[in-house]
């Protein structure tokens, strides 16, 4: 094939010399004829016209040459993309030149090889053609038509700025999805501004998508490449995925519950659903005690754990449930001490043990009545047993028990066994536990106990170990925003852990109508009044301490004081109005020597308010190559590993795998350890990075 002077493999096109000679020859002949006819005016006119035609021919031929040269450069540039062995003008037709003397082509038709090896798939090919056309001619093109069977693509200039911008965003979506899924059917829905809001992809069967880490990586990469935070809904049986923008969670959501005028705790038991908060879909997360035996709420001080416990307790009190409770720190549930339908909230450790015994005895009574067929299960009134700060309760119980253990008794208080039995057997008898912990505890989240706590909420950032116990993942819950109060994780109705914002429920103790300065928000009093039970079914009770009525004939009582059995036999009776004032105004003030001793034990046993320390739950950093993060199959081998991506910036890895787009690189998907924001980065396989692995226990 001949080449032009600049080395192009395309053949020469006609220049201006031959047409000019032809025009000159025609002018000479015409001028000669005019002269022979003795018409000098006509001869002059022929000469002028000849000059004009020659000039126009030269100009048009020069312009055509410039246009051909521009088009040839484009043909050469796109030939490898089109899949042809050599450039050919017949496969790239440019026309409708406008704008300026030379102008630019407004329409282009391209023909690509549907059989030969073409870089990428059809979507990537078209996107690359549009990109190269825009780079060569300086204008944006849209796809007018694409015939994949014949391998033909028609491009035309975008003449509408808004549509052009929207099309560019849509094309970016298509290109991104093509790189991930290959040949796939991609559909994009946009909003009024032309921004993508929903993407659906029908892809070919791919075993790699069965790996959760791969799917998480695709979701994270989509959020990194496209504007906004995206999430994916997968249907691997139908080879389909739908992406949508993540809704933003509000930072404060007031508890919307209102106490009913009429209650039927037995009749509504099966359908009872306690609203706890709202997830990013706007779905209300609920606890259904009938289906999920017990509830567990974890969270460091200040993250909203007590607020959630208050909200659940006050809601069920408004529904007419029996409420019994243990206030591990003695003051967290103070506002519920005289609350309607709350029978007894214990503050002192001896009272806490006595309340546990009372709930256990109630369970035994119900079991015996049901076993003897005196009653049906539906005859039992539902009971909520609230235990806030269980570790503090247990620590204080063990310390106190050593001071009152009867001679010859077990070294471990039977209270712990009773508590365990309530967890195991209570659900059947409509006795449900709501447990509050600062940190996830293996005692309740491993083995058989895990199944009993079907409802769980974790508030604030979890350590990898805590995340594994709560959600069976080293990553879930580790990236909850550090400063987000009431923000945490819970399972939705599909059983998937989701981020939620729990409801704000004010503490009745902090909403004195006469002290508005103590309210957290101006609407707190209104919220408390809306939640306050309108039907008061159960009387507030108090515990009569053994010291209150000593048996003067009992040498042990007068000389050595009551033992553990005496405290467990303490009477529980109706509280009077006079009883309520000391509880409210002087909570924590103990008058008898025995009570003062108990107070000191509780102070020493109280669990400190420890915040999650940086890198808690992770081993010391080690330096390794990026490739060593992968297992034998080329995927992340240590779930939840931390990697230092920049100086001082760590990411929780969700996915790692060889980069398909760049050989010799590993692609990492992560969430910023501090903010929880997703990101993706590609690093050379031999690059050295600092890593921290979750500690194994």
Structure description:
The chain has 697 residues and is an alpha+beta fold. Among the domains are: 91-245, no CATH class; 274-528, 3-Layer(aba) Sandwich (Rossmann fold); 622-692, SH3 type barrels (Roll), CATH 2.30.30. Helices cover 34% and strands 22% of the residues. It contains 17 helices and 26 strands. Strands 10-9-18-17-16-11-15-14-12-13 form a 10-stranded mixed beta sheet. Strands 21-26-22-23-24-25 form a 6-stranded antiparallel beta sheet, with helices on one face. Strands 1-2-4-3 form a 4-stranded antiparallel beta sheet. A hairpin with a 2-residue loop joins strand 22 and strand 23 (649-658). Helix 3 (122-137) crosses helix 4 (161-181), helix 7 crosses helix 9 and helix 8 crosses helix 17.
Biggest sheet, spatial arrangement of strands: 10-9-18-17-16-11-15-14-12-13
Query: In angstroms, what separates the terminal alpha carbons?
Result: 73 Å
Q: What is the CA-based Rg, rounded?
A: 39 Å
Question: Strand tally, please?
Answer: 26
Low-confidence stretches: 1-6, 581-590
Question: What structural keywords apply?
Answer:
elongated, 17 helices, alpha+beta, 697 residues, disordered N terminus, 26 strands, Rossmann fold
Question: What's a concise summary of this model?
Answer:
By secondary structure, the protein is an alpha+beta fold. Among the domains are: 91-245, no CATH class; 274-528, Rossmann fold; 622-692, SH3 type barrels (Roll). A ten-stranded mixed sheet has the order 10-9-18-17-16-11-15-14-12-13.
